[in-house]
Design goal:
single chain; mainly alpha; Arc Repressor Mutant, subunit A; three-stranded antiparallel sheet; 8 helices; 68% helix; 9% strand
Length: 195
């Protein structure tokens, strides 16, 4: 009677042969290029796209970036003044109305003091902010909004309000109100009021 091969041993042998072929391709071609690798990369891309789509916070990041880009594109450009960039708009919410030190801005934004100083230089050249002595520390300066900067913030908020109206028209007032409520609830958790 003829003995049948053990299926586990057969799978292990085929797996060893496949790994040997793959290793040979890596040595010969450098990266193991071919249909198997391309299929693996395609599956990895699909998995990454699926997981990004399933992440609510990732969707929030993406929507935020795209809305920021649209808002910046709608800002009027003024001859002789620097154009606002996303790095500028990322800094603006971190400037307190009574002023904020460069070191605090750097910590809030998560970049170096030098990087924040460059952004503040740009905004200062645009007339949006100014550096003033810190009333609590004579050696320090605070970044404050200029009257032009405060007016610009109000204009920017009006632009955002118009964009909100367009979104509400596209998705409905109810979902827009729900989004606002959800964002306020999230902010209450991640940025609770200070005592």
């Amino acid at each position: 009677m003829k003995k049948r091969p053990d299926p586990r041993a057969e799978r292990a042998r085929k797996g060893d042969e496949g790994r040997a072929r793959e290793g040979g391709r890596e040595r010969a071609g450098g990266r193991g290029e071919g249909p198997a690798r391309e299929g693996g990369e395609a599956r990895a891309r699909e998995e990454l796209a699926r997981r990004k789509h399933e992440s609510t916070i990732q969707l929030l990041f993406r929507a935020s970036r795209l809305l920021d880009e649209q808002a910046l594109a709608r800002l009027p450009s003024e001859p002789g003044r620097p154009r606002m960039r996303r790095s500028h708009t990322a800094l603006l919410p971190h400037i307190d109305l009574d002023g904020t030190r460069i070191t605090d801005l750097a910590e809030r934004v998560g970049v170096t003091k030098q990087a924040v100083s460059q952004l503040v230089d740009d905004l200062e050249a645009a007339g949006v902010v100014a550096r003033e002595p810190d009333p609590e520390d004579a050696r320090a300066k605070r970044v404050v909004f200029t009257p032009r900067g405060r007016a610009g913030i109000l204009e920017g908020l009006a632009l955002l309000r118009a964009m909100e109206g367009e979104l509400a028209a596209a998705i409905g007032d109810g979902p827009m109100a729900d989004l606002r409520g959800a964002l306020l609830a999230i902010l209450a958790v991640v940025d609770p009021p200070r005592a």
